[in-house]
Amino acid sequence: MTAQELRSIIAAGLGCEHLEVDGDGRHWQALVVSAEFAGLRTLQRHQRVYATLGGRMQTDEVHALSIRTFTPAEWAAHPH
Questions:
Q1: 20 to 30 A Cα–Cα from 35, which one of 5, 14, 45, 69?
Q2: What pTM was estimated for this model as a whole?
Q3: Cα 73 to chain center, whole Å?
Q4: Structural domains in the chain, sorted by start
């Protein structure tokens, strides 16, 4: 799997205002900004991202995914 493929999978399942995906083909990092995260705790946000992957985590197609999540307002206030 490529970073672009993983990015497309996440974007297809979650309305993203901003999405960055980087990794080595097995270990991935994703930064996801979505209005859908409003009112959700961190665990719930991560579950929403994992849900976009379907069974890809169980089949080891995506071995590891580190996620940082923000709402658009949080992202606007975040130094980057």
A1: 5
A2: 0.92
A3: 17
A4: 3-77 (3.30.300.90)
Report residue 11 as tokens: 């974007």
Q: How confident is the model at residue 8 (pLDDT cuts 50, 70, 90)?
A: very high
Cβ 76 vs Cβ 42: under 8 Å: no
Q: Is 12 helix (H, G, I), strand (E, B) or coil?
A: helix
Find tokens 């399942």 and name the residue: 13
pLDDT in tens, 36-52: 999 999 999 999 999 99
Q: How far apart are CA 55 and CA 20, in angstroms?
A: 21
Q: Which parts of 6-72 are beta strand (E)?
A: 18-23, 27-33, 64-70
Residues linked to residue 32 through DSSP beta bridges, in sequence order: 19, 69
